[in-house]
Amino acid sequence: MVAAASMHPVAKGSPRSPTREGTQGQNRPMDHLLDQISETVSSARTLEELTRPLLEMLESVTGLESTYLTTIDLQQSIQSILYARNVGGMQIPEGLSVPWGDTLCRRALDEGRPFADDVAARWGDSQAARALGIQTYLSTPVHLADGSLYGTLCAASAARHELPQRAQRMLSLFAALIAQQVEREQLVHKLIEANSLLRAFATTDPLTQLANRRALQQELGRRLALAAQRGTPVMVAFVDLDGFKAINDRHGHDAGDQFLVALAGRLRVVLHADEMAARMGGDEFVILAWGPADPAAQPGAEQALRDRVFEATVGDYRLEGDLRLPYAGASVGVLGAAPGMLDAVQVLRAADAAMYAVKRRRQASSAPRAPEPLNRL
User: Fold this and answer.
1) Active-site annotation holder among 283, 294, 307, 343
2) In this structure, is the dihedral angle defined by the CA atoms of residues 269, 274, 278 and 280, taken in order, positive or negative?
3) 3-state SS class at 347
């Protein structure tokens, strides 16, 4: 971007041409500016880190005391000052929002006039311009790659100024750099969102929206490692829905799915802040909780967790189609895993065994029956 040397011939042996010296002298400020731009672009990690130095350079290039970047919300018809630099008496504050239709930027875009040194006479109907005292104005739109209008990059002054040479080109260059940074940040944001969705998809049961088996095993492993540091046990409640197969057989799989979703909702309600509920698969659920530091309190804590989870499963379930199912409760086994004794797979296997012991006792006391519909509401 350095201007070409003078094309006038120079005789052999003659001293260096004054015209060439003059051109080189004029290029020195531009070389310095290009160095500043290069350093800013290479070091900026955020839009703000890029924009603020560019606004300072824009003030230097244009001689206008206020330089600023705006964003435009076309749906709300609002223009807002995102970043601003003010070195004179005129102050354009960051965060200022004005109706898009009243702005100089809108008029400049509509008329194809990026520069005006007679704002009061040309666009005197702009209340925002009158309130800020703008007399000289320069702007360019910041367009993203898809053609959408992100905002504008502007310079303004309360005094009358001529448009300096190269100012418009520098303004356009700065706007392009800002657009690229905006797109980079938008892409990073989209990638983060996509990664979060993938992580949620990989660790969430799609039907109940509880954690799935994979997430459960990861969290249980984490808690077991932390339990070894704390010296406190991890309690695992293993839940099996007695009679669930009969619900599916009698009322259909849609009703069975609704029953699972409703039960998951009940489990969420009774969870404490530091607990986790997960669906192992089918009709099996698991709740993780912390045990007490005092070993003597462990049996009582296990019984309290068992009662809390069991009682959450008992009751009438109102399903679609005005179906109301009374449910006598699930089989719930609770295991207190002592720190450093078992891994996640072993703990789940032991909790499953504790649940089946409860199931056998329930079966021995009364033959299990599938829930009958009470009535149609």
Assistant:
1) 283
2) negative
3) helix
